[in-house]
Amino acid sequence: MIRREKSAGFTLIEILIAMLVLSIVMFIGSLSFSTFSERWQKDMGHFTQEVANAKNLVLLQKALNGISNYIVKNDKDESVYFFRGNDKYLMFVTNNPVFNTNDRALIRLSVTVLADGKQQLRYEEAPFELSPLLRLTSLPKGNYSQILLTDDDIRFNFYGWEDQKQRAAFFEGEPMSPKWMREYFGEKTGMLPYAINITWGSNEPIIFPLLNDNGYQMLYTREKREDA
Q: Which among 183, 186, 187 is positioned nearest to 196, based on CA atoms?
């Protein structure tokens, strides 16, 4: 009697089950990769934006570090400090402009609101070699412009004295101190602020200290001139 060996192989049901399991594994793998890829692209985009913001803030720090004790004439033909700022804009003269490094320039920083509610911080630069600043009533227009930051609720604050009398009283020993303010105008205070901070979204403020100015000496000179 001849004995026949049973042939090895898979049944159709076994093959179908194997294909179903393989399809499920491939689907889960593809979904995981897609989720990972989207998360990676989102994180990379956020990282790239943070790097760009940091670079722009370094450029802004360069301009702020070069703020000049610049004097102009007001509408009464009086000599006043040029520095103007509130929580949404800032104007000053710098010896370290970002674009045109050959001369000092007038800098405008302004916050504008976009259609989606986001805010942009725009940097504008007007070099003095093209149009010098002489009077408060005649400000040169910007020749260079760049967006430094796009985020929520961008705002400025200024640390300094409200006026020269407070500063003089402090140097004479009275218990007074500078404070943070939402606006600061050099033609009123007669000096530059000690520091500027920029805040956006829920971030902690970034504080930019400014070089000391000679506003106190200007007050002393004015008093001597008036007493003469």
A: 183
